[in-house]
Design goal:
Blueprint lengths: L4 E4 L9 H17 L4 E2 L1 H12 L6 H14 L2 E5 L8 H13 L3 E4 L10 H11 L5
Parallel strand pairs: 1-2, 1-3, 3-4
Helix pairs in contact: 1-2, 3-4
């Protein structure tokens, strides 16, 4: 596997709070892991770092540049369409990055993919294994 999927999901202004946003992101990543698909989520992977490492979890000046490093190596973006995803600054930045890079973007309703992973996502991962992206 040459790359991974990148999960975009709301966080800062998620209506149920950042801890619930983290929990949802973790649950979504786990679904992809069960399918054998590598996935990175800045929310699932970095929320504990912020919480236990005394880093402001809401400071976009800290997190957006870090996310850019991970986006650079991801083959496709999966947008988790939960509450307020359309107004999320972070999700908007991630969509913009992948759009400008010409990489696939998939929009999923969580947790609908738990029983039927979108075929487009599977195709993107096939392309990743062939080294087509990034």
């Amino acid at each position: 596997m040459n790359s991974y999927l990148y999960l975009a999901s709301p966080y800062t202004k998620y209506p149920l709070g950042i801890h619930q946003a983290w929990k949802l992101a973790c649950e979504q990543v786990a679904i992809f892991v069960r399918y054998g698909l590598p996935m990175y989520s800045p929310i699932a992977h970095m929320h504990p770092v912020a919480m236990h490492g005394n880093v402001d979890p809401l400071d976009h000046k800290v997190w957006l540049p870090m996310n850019a490093v991970m986006m650079r190596h991801a083959c496709a973006l999966v947008v988790m369409c939960t509450a307020d995803w359309k107004t999320s600054v972070g999700v908007a930045a991630e969509i913009k990055y992948f759009t400008e890079a010409g990489r696939p973007i998939f929009y999923i309703e969580s947790p609908d993919v738990s029983t039927n992973l979108p075929q487009g996502v599977l195709k993107a991962m096939q392309l990743c294994t062939q080294g087509v992206f990034p």
